[in-house]
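Private note to self, pasted from the team thread so I don't lose it. Backbone tokens:
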């Protein structure tokens, strides 16, 4: 989708989520999955390094929490939005089983085959806008 199409969809949405490899694996088990409210975390405008953002729910390799903060990164024209599993600055710390500097939900410089979004060369990361 174009940036303007995404902004139009955002205007009609209250939440965003990111899933992994939804074509091959069901979303309904909520593994390797995150969801947040746009009012708490706007993925369309976010930029920063290891900024604690309130998540409605987040799960990485089975580590999970609800209504907690997770550390996100994004730098325009440099790094797409992502989470670093080894960061411990926020409430969500999925470090158990992580590889050094493991990236999740976006930039994939350091990957872990146990994370669904990087489990194979064909795996995907999928962003969704919507509401309940």
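Design output:
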């Amino acid at each position: 989708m174009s940036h303007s199409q995404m902004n139009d969809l955002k205007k009609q949405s209250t939440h965003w989520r990111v899933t992994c490899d939804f074509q091959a694996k069901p979303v309904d088990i909520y593994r390797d999955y995150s969801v947040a409210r746009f009012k708490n975390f706007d993925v369309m405008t976010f930029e920063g390094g290891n900024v604690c953002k309130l998540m409605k729910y987040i799960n990485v390799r089975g580590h999970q929490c609800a209504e907690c903060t997770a550390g996100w990164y994004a730098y325009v024209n440099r790094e797409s939005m992502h989470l670093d599993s080894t960061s411990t600055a926020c409430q969500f710390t999925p470090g158990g089983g992580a590889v050094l500097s493991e990236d999740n939900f976006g930039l994939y410089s350091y990957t872990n085959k146990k994370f669904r979004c990087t489990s194979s060369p064909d795996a995907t990361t999928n962003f969704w806008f919507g509401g309940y």
